[in-house]
Specification:
alpha+beta, two-stranded antiparallel ribbon, 3 helices, 12% strand, elongated
Length: 113
Amino acid sequence: MDAQERILVNFDFRSDTSGYPKRDPDACSRTLRPYHKYLWSKPLPNGVVFDLDDTTRHYLHHKSEALGEFFLASSAVIPSPPCHTPETDLCFLCPPLDDGPSRRSESSLGRGM
C-alpha cells in the first residue's frame, strides 16, 4: 500500500476473509494486514524508522540493530452479549444479532473501543 491509496475506515474486514465466520478476519483478511503495516510503519521520535515486514510467517515483523526484534499481531476487542454463543444456556434471553450497520462497524478500523 502506498501513500496514494486510501484507508477505508468503514471497510468490513469480514467481507474479504475467505471462510468467515470460521476464519478470523484479524488473521485472514487480505486487506487488514497491509492497512496495519502502513499505519504502524513509522519514523520514531529518535529518528529510527520502525519499518514492518509482512513477508515472514509472522503477521508483521520488525528487526533492526537500533531497535531489536518485534512481532506484531492483530486482535480486535469486540464486546458482545455473553449469550451470543450457542453453547450458552442463556441464549433464549438475548434477541438474535442482526448483521446491520452497527454490527458491521465492529469489524472496521473506524470502530470505537
